[in-house]
Structure of Phenylalanine--tRNA ligase beta subunit:
Amino acid sequence: MKFSENWLRHHVPTRASRDELAATLTAIGLEVEDVTALGNALDGVVVARIVSAQKHPEADRLQVCQVDTGSGTVQIVCGAPNARAGLVAPLATVGAVLPGGIAIKAAKLRGVESSGMLCSAKELGVDPDASGLLELPADATIGMPLATYLGLPDATIEIKLTPNRADCFSVRGIAFDVAAALGGEVIPLDATPVPAQSDATLKVVLEAGARVPRFAGRVIDNVDATVETPVWMAERLRRSGLRPISFLVDVTQYVMLELGQPMHAFDKDTLEGEIVVRPARAGESLALLDGRTVELDDDFLVVSDSRGGKGARAVALGGIMGGADTRVTDVTRNVFLEAAHWIPSAIIGRSRKLGMHTDAAHRFERGVDPQLPGIAVEYATRLILDIAGGVAGPLLDVTLPQHLSSPEPILLRRARLARVLGLTVADDEVVRIFTALGMQVEALADGWRVTAPSRRFDIEREEDLIEEVARIHGYENIPTHTPAGALTLAAEPEARLNELAVREQLAARGYYEAVNLAFVGNEVLQRWGMTEQLVALANPLSADLAVMRPSLLPGLVAALSHNRARQQERVRLFELGRTFGIAPAAAAAKEAPTETPSLAMVACGTAQAEQWGEATRTLDFHDLKGDLDALIAWGGEPQRWAVHADGLPGWLHPGRGARVTRDGVTAGYLGALHPQLAKALDLGADVHVLELALDPVLARRLPRAQPVARFPSVRRDIAMDLPEAVSWSQIEQVIRTTLGEQLRELRLFDRYSGKGVEAGRKSLAMGLILQDASRTLTDDDADRYVREAVAALEMACKARLRG
């Protein structure tokens, strides 16, 4: 929000200096980003009129001007392209020193004497425009000091607003905060209702329900649209970052900046029949004031008239921009002023959807006082009548009362205020703060009942009132104390691992934690083949961040790629975060998306960091599988986990990937990236990934104390000839199921395929560690268990015992 310092002081008189005012604004949460001083050194600069302008005899681009200073005529040599007879412009007289340090002296230019300098806005430091002389109105008083005429010195102040302070997108909204902080009072706004001078009116119909619960308007006939915008209004607009266009347009902009209510002026003669506020129709188009023609759908709201039938023609894009066909011009004689209340949800994201950003939409998206439309129309009407004349019709204020709510009183407890702030604020000071902020205060025995004005959407509960007291009373006045309190230590559940332990385990295995955004782009997900059950954002920050991530891997692999592009060949990254998705049935029922805590790991490069003890080799599937085994071993139940070669997603390598399950339920996937995906992402073939749902990883067997075994264990080794497709997890499950508690451990110590083994089969040698808790196993017992295990493998896995 950018505004004129003098304009603010007009609403809240204060003796605070400019620096004190800027410091106060920042201290109360309205952070000042920039202060630009204007017209601080304009002594000797006066309003002057060029009486005549003749071509310089020795230079084509210079003119010799005779200039009336109000106290005589001086000769000025000027090179401005707009210098002409009759022009009123600023003149820096001999002896003046301009803001840039330029000292004005009498001089000769190409042999012609010049006694002063006609100035541009940039030379005066009042505007960046240097295209020509600053043109002043023809009725300006000749000889008047320019600073007096333009209301200088002044400053442009730009503040950074948080989304909750929509009320401060107006000079008067800021004025209430300044009055409260500096102990002043806001001058009441003169918005006396204008009596109707005619019966001219338009019928207004609201068909958008709660999205537009109020619409105010007025017809003003016989307006002089050619009148120039008064200097005081034009300068306030210019110093607020808006360039004056024409009086009727400038009035609506001025009211928006002063009160915070966006408005629009229609040429009434271009409207037909009644005004209808309705949702746009699919495929409907509208030519806007900026020259664009946009295609609309029923997500937008429009103001329409009855040309071609009731509400047939859209004439403005609701809450965003007016239409070109009904705009006011210099030939406009009859005006229809409009000010409506569009709720934020009806406007948010609409202008961005069209690639636009307007001051009106910026305000409506954050919330505008629902009581303002009628006040704004009355205020604008008075300005138009005073400056451009005209005959005003009756005020139209159409409302849907059932959709308009009033602020509810909020109880602020005195003890709660003192406890939260850590100090006691005097009752009189609390009442003064709330009153200065425009709130209604009722004193109670234990505190106050406070009703916020309708413009303060951010005041909803007691904590908000406490924040207002702290903000205005001054954070610097709140004492600093060491926090005190009784902390309750919650016991860690033994049946669940701590996420910190997972992080520490992965860090110990050489992985670095990454934190990525929870948003990704559609294009990235299409590359991964993740196109279903997506949660799209209604108002994304950009096209690259339009979808909530369905997986941690796209972001994590992008981070890996970023590191590899910076000469990091060996990369190990992991991330713990949430993924998002919505099933078709849930989407149809408009249910909330599901959030799944997840763990992802990516790795590439060599299996070991650079060292001399082992031969260098490239990381493979089994390295990442080993990291997974180490992780799930912490849960104490690795036998509940298994990997399978079927059911792989399209982004995994079909021959070097696996589906990971716990108790038969899919928990995630592991393996190398699919070659086509790796090529599309400009990655090497050695990138391996893992993604698991986090809850199964954190599940832990409850630790139980067990006596040390009193009886020795027995080991038996067997070698089995099995089909190549049979996985070790299947073999392990079969043997553990068959032998039960007698099997203490199962070790795979050899794998062989080649000579002596049929094609398509493999030989696995494994050790069975057998033990009984109640007795010593005999050789017969051990042999029996081996026979049972071999028989089970033969039946379930088509295995053969090798001799």
In short: The chain has six domains: 2-39+155-182, 45-152, 204-403, 410-476, 499-698, 714-801. Residues 234 and 244 are 6 Å apart (CA to CA). The chain has 23 helices and 39 strands.
